[in-house]
Task: inverse folding
């Protein structure tokens, strides 16, 4: 059996489903195999170019319309060409990070429960729960008045806020009670501008929720509730009790890579790229996406398709020089006496030689009449 | 016979030129900035010295004796009066200054430290890419060493070294002149050079400070003779002239013992000229200019960018045997043919080797000469000499002709050619066609192959190339001919199929038409179908389905779906159920075409497809098919329904706004009141539009050509029709209704804060009725938006494509079926995990169920 697994499985599955005889099944298998053998790719095929073309040609049809609304104006998502470029560039953070958290059934019985969990997931900063943050110039300290109503709304205990400030601001003296908290720098004679900076820092103190998640939106579908998040923090999301961990989705590829390793990142890139293309109604065979992503991830790190990424790390000086910044590459090559073995495409095009792809690959050795005479 | 030298460049090594090499490879020493003497003859020792090659016809090179064509030019050299820093290596020089001792030239490390660094380096290399880590390592070394205050070898005190960009070095705020830098560089040992990341065999640090300058051959800087007879020199020659002039002045001043200040000034000036000679776009350095104020294009600019040597001349080359002209449609020629005008056919040639057997035939071409068709333009002798056929040479060549000669004869029907339309975005943009010589001045193209080229006939031009070797012809024929490209490797669908009228025609034929036997035979004959036996099977009146079936192979079984999801059944070559439309024969969707390719091969499919295409058009001709504005006239009741839908929607919106203003509106979870209102209004308006679409869709009048075309999938859809006939609908910018402007309103005829549909870009009229001025304004806003979107997108996606291409160009399938890059690193063990070629599959899959059905069906 030389059939790949998915075809083999299909033959098995459908022969059971349609209840065909063994003889018919064997014949089907034979014909499928015959078709498979015929459709196999030929050695030497310049599959990289084909992949590049398959992306490049339809990319002219992608929209540049950057944003797509998931109902709320804060929940924007980059789609179309800009998102595709972002994915292929392997940017460290997506311009609009997003996460989808599906809630476990037992935590999503009522709307209130879901809303509560959503509020828990959303990042709350000190600035959000403080009524007032003022600088007392005379005493050189900062006074924080907590917004009780808001705290009650969000179900946060003032004590928790206080503790957070203590742990976050180690260099400061923190005093106070339920209503107002006074923080004071330990070293004295701080400049006013530095105290001001401190105040801004205090506003950003993380009180509760997933860091980086700026907005949440609970969405109901037939399988229960999903919380859409603007901002992504996979590491902290995995610690949430209420969330079905297997179904967490994030569009931040580097986060996936950090936590699940390169194979996870590979899957994530395939998923993200497929999603962009599907949204725009463009069909490209998965094999192309897979090849491209494999090239991006084959070293174990995610490499972008940029002059510093894959192309920049090409062995051939001439190939690099032809792409971008030729002078830089030539100068650096001259310093280390770099050698170009001319085993890829542009170099040979430049030198008017056959390209080692397709029909340029095989050599032909034949005896001529003269050679036979010599023997 | 002509002989070939089968030599291949195996590798190239890059390195720097040492002064010795510069002197050795030079054929002339340049001593004077003058170019020509009074007689207009190049001056010896000048920049146009005849020893550097020739650019004038008639002159001979003094070095190699060749004339304009044979001599490729020779280098000269210029002895610089004082050493000059090479700008491009300024950073490396700085690094060396910082890392080596100013007295003894040794690296500022003791043994222990050095061993440690080398150790680290080795570790790094195993961890990461060797090349990258060396660079990183060198950077690390230089940051540690720049702070060393005392040389561990000779105990000399070290100073901090600063650089004043681009080429001035300061040691404790005192300038070090290039002579001193050069002597310091000379002291650095080879092993230390290697330690700092250079290969001393190819790059010694002192070579970065030039004391001789290679002067490029005149052939790379040819002068142009203007119409007035004046000579205009190349930018490089100008720049070199400046360098030589200043250099001479510097020499003279030094020899005359001029004061230090004057010498230094000249030295700086020389440095400036040499710097701009290498790169005229360095920041902080004012670019050298022509007298007209235009910046000179010096060495770096010649190499760089899209118009530079690499991308313009090396990676892309100009070719001979090519033609370009406007394309026009002709569905009467085959899909794999191209109509070539006589003028082109008589200019382009294909070489044919003379043998005993074709001698007589080829002699006729030579006899006809270049002015008569079919004739020939050139004869190539076995020694490679090319002879043009003219009235004078014709007789002699005719006599001379014998086996082994090549005759470059005019293009004739059936010759292979390569046809291309830019932008060549995928491989179907360049396909091989058979030549068909036709009268007229345009290339003729079957409209069925417009889609892969993305061509239309509104003035598009295309290029034609004629392969000139047997290998090239064979490759073009087997790999590039149109039929081999029916299925795209992008997703396994067909890029070649019927379009527009051809679809409408087949739809009408298989749905409505019934012809008398005579008319049916007439119709089939007109498209080039001559199977008389088939005609005998026809009854008195022939159904359109049977006429279509006549084109199909007799043993074809096919089950598919039409555009309207109705089944289409073909049994034993007869269409027994369903209609033929876009979903069966259209581009990118034609399931029937894919089935034909799978079962009968490319060539036969292409023939059938050509006939189907022509059948469609011919059927339309018989049926009588036209479209007019009156097609968009709606029946009274439909009009009434549309008006009602809009009226209701507007009422509902007014209601919503009322609720919003009285704060009765319930906000959606997590949203503000305003956002909720917007969402609801949009919903209502979209629903209204949808409703109108439905209402318009309900009229499926067979006499309405516009609707017929939409239903067949030939052109347009019902939504387009609704927009013309009834209502254009909401204009939206980035998903929102058109926003209120600066003064809280979109246009000055509205009240401030008006949220009504009209004020926010809802176009309630259809195109046919005409838009009101404010509707027109809103509509033009979205029009402008999408126009800008396109204009901004094209370069962005073009750049993405270029990057993809350069990243993936060397990835190929190896003989062991693994996918590897140029350095044989494995990317995939099996392409796509199953080793399937998408262009050989049915939409990227091997259809198991289909196969099973075939088996069971027997």
Result:
């Amino acid at each position: 059996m030389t059939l790949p697994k998915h075809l083999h499985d299909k033959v098995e599955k459908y022969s059971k489903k349609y209840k065909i005889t063994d003889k018919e099944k064997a014949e089907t298998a034979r014909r499928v195999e015959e078709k498979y053998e015929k459709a196999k790719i030929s050695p030497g095929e310049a599959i990289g170019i084909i992949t590049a073309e398959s992306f490049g040609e339809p990319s002219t049809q992608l929209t540049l319309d950057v944003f797509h609304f998931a109902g709320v104006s804060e929940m924007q998502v980059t789609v179309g060409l800009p998102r595709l470029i972002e994915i292929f560039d392997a940017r460290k953070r997506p311009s609009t990070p997003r996460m989808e958290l599906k809630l476990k059934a037992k935590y999503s019985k009522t709307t209130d429960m879901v809303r509560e969990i959503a509020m828990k997931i959303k990042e709350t900063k000190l600035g959000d729960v403080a009524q007032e943050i003022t600088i007392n110039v005379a005493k050189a300290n900062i006074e924080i008045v907590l917004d009780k109503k808001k705290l009650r709304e969000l179900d946060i205990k003032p004590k928790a806020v206080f503790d957070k400030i203590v742990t976050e601001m180690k260099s400061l003296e923190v005093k106070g009670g339920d209503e107002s908290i006074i923080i004071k720098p330990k070293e004295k004679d701080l400049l006013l501008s530095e105290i001001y900076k401190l105040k801004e820092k205090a506003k950003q103190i993380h009180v509760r929720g997933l860091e980086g998640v700026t907005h949440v939106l609970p969405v109901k579908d037939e399988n229960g509730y999903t919380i859409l998040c603007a901002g992504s923090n996979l590491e902290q999301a995995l610690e949430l009790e209420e969330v079905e961990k297997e179904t967490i989705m994030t569009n931040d590829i580097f986060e996936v890579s950090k936590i699940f390793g390169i194979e996870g990142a590979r899957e994530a890139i395939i998923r993200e790229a497929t999603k962009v293309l599907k949204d725009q109604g463009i069909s490209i065979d998965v094999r192309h996406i897979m090849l491209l992503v494999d090239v991006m991830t084959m070293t174990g790190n995610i490499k972008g398709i940029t002059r510093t990424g894959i192309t920049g790390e090409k062995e051939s000086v001439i190939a690099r020089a032809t792409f971008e910044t030729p002078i830089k590459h030539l100068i650096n090559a001259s310093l280390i006496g770099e050698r170009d073995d001319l085993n890829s495409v542009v170099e040979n095009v430049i030198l008017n030689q056959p390209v080692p792809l397709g029909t340029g690959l095989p050599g032909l050795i034949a005896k001529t009449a003269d050679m036979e005479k010599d023997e | 016979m002509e002989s070939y030298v089968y030599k291949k460049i195996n590798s190239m090594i890059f390195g720097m030129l040492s002064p010795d090499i510069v002197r050795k490879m030079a054929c002339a020493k340049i001593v004077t900035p003058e170019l020509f003497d009074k007689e207009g003859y190049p001056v010896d020792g000048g920049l146009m010295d005849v020893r550097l090659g020739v650019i004038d016809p008639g002159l001979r090179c003094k070095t190699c004796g060749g004339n304009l064509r044979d001599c490729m030019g020779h280098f000269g050299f210029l002895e610089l009066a004082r050493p000059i820093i090479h700008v491009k290596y300024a950073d490396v020089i700085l690094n060396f200054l910082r890392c080596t001792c100013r007295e003894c030239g040794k690296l500022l490390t003791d043994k222990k430290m050095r061993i440690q660094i080398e150790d680290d380096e080795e570790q790094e290399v195993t961890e990461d890419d060797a090349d990258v880590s060396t660079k990183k390592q060198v950077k690390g070394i230089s940051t540690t060493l720049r702070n060393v205050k005392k040389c561990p070898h000779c105990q000399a005190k070290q100073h901090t070294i600063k650089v004043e960009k681009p080429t001035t070095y300061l040691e404790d705020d005192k300038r070090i002149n290039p002579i001193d830098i050069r002597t310091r560089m000379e002291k650095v040992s080879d092993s230390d050079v290697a330690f700092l990341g250079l290969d001393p065999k190819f790059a010694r640090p002192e070579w970065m400070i030039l004391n001789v300058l290679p002067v490029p051959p005149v052939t790379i800087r040819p002068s142009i003779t203007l119409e007035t007879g004046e000579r205009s020199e190349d930018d490089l020659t100008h720049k070199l002239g400046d360098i030589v002039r200043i250099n001479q002045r510097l020499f003279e001043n030094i020899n005359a013992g001029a004061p230090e200040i004057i010498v230094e000034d000249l030295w700086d000036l020389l440095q400036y000229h040499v710097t701009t000679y290498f790169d005229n776009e360095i920041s902080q350095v004012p670019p050298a200019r022509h007298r007209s104020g235009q910046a000179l294009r010096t060495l770096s600019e010649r190499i760089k960018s899209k118009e530079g040597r690499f991308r313009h001349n090396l990676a892309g080359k100009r070719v001979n045997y090519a033609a370009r002209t406007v394309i026009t449609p002709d569905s009467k020629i085959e899909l794999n043919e191209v109509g070539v005008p006589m003028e082109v056919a008589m200019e382009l040639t294909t070489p044919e080797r003379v043998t005993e057997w074709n001698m007589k035939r080829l002699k006729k071409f030579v006899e006809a000469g270049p002015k008569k068709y079919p004739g020939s333009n050139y004869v190539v002798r076995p020694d490679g000499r090319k002879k043009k056929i003219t009235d004078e040479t014709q007789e002699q060549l005719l006599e001379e002709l014998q086996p082994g000669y090549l005759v470059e004869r005019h293009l004739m029907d059936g010759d292979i050619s390569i046809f291309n339309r830019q932008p060549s975005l995928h491989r179907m943009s360049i396909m091989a066609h058979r030549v068909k010589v036709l009268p007229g001045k345009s290339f003729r193209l079957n409209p069925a192959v417009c889609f892969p080229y993305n061509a239309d006939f509104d003035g598009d031009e295309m290029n034609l190339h004629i392969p000139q070797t047997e290998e090239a012809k064979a490759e073009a024929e087997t790999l590039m001919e149109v039929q081999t490209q029916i299925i795209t490797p992008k997703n396994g669908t067909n890029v070649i199929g019927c379009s527009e009228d051809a679809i409408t025609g087949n739809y009408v034929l298989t749905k409505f038409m019934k012809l008398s036997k005579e008319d049916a035979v007439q119709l089939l004959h007109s498209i080039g179908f001559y199977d008389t036996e088939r005609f005998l099977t026809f009854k008195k009146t022939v159904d359109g389905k049977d006429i279509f079936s006549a084109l199909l192979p007799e043993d074809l079984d096919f089950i598919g779906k039409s555009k309207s999801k109705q089944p289409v059944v073909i049994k034993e070559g007869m269409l027994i159920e369903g209609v033929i439309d876009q979903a069966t024969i259209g581009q990118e969707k034609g399931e029937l075409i894919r089935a034909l390719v799978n079962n009968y091969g490319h060539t036969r499919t292409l023939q059938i497809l050509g006939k189907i295409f022509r059948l469609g058009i011919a059927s339309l001709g018989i049926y009588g098919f036209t479209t007019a504005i009156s097609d968009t006239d709606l029946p009274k009741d439909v009009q009434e329904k549309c008006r009602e839908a809009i009226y209701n929607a507007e009422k509902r919106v007014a209601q919503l706004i009322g609720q919003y203003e009285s704060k009765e509106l319930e906000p959606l979870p997590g949203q503000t009141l305003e956002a909720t209102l917007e969402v609801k209004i949009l919903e209502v308006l979209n629903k209204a539009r949808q409703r109108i679409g439905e209402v318009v869709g309900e009229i499926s009048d067979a006499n309405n050509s516009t609707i017929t075309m939409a239903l067949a999938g030939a052109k347009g859809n019902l939504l387009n029709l609704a927009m013309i006939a009834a209502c254009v609908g909401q204009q939206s910018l980035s998903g929102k209704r058109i926003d209120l402007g600066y003064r809280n309103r979109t246009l000055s005829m509205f009240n401030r804060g008006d949220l009504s549909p009209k004020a926010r870009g809802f176009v309630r009229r259809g195109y046919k009725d005409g838009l009101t001025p404010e509707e027109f304004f809103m509509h033009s806003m979205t029009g402008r938006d999408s126009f800008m979107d396109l204009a901004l997108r094209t370069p962005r996606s073009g750049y993405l494509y270029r990057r993809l291409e350069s990243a993936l160009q060397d990835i190929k399938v190896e003989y062991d079926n693994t996918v590897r890059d140029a350095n044989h690193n494995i990317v995939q063990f099996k392409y796509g995990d199953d080793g399937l070629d998408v262009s050989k599959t049915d939409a990227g899959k091997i259809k198991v169920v289909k196969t099973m059905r075939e088996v069971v069906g027997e």
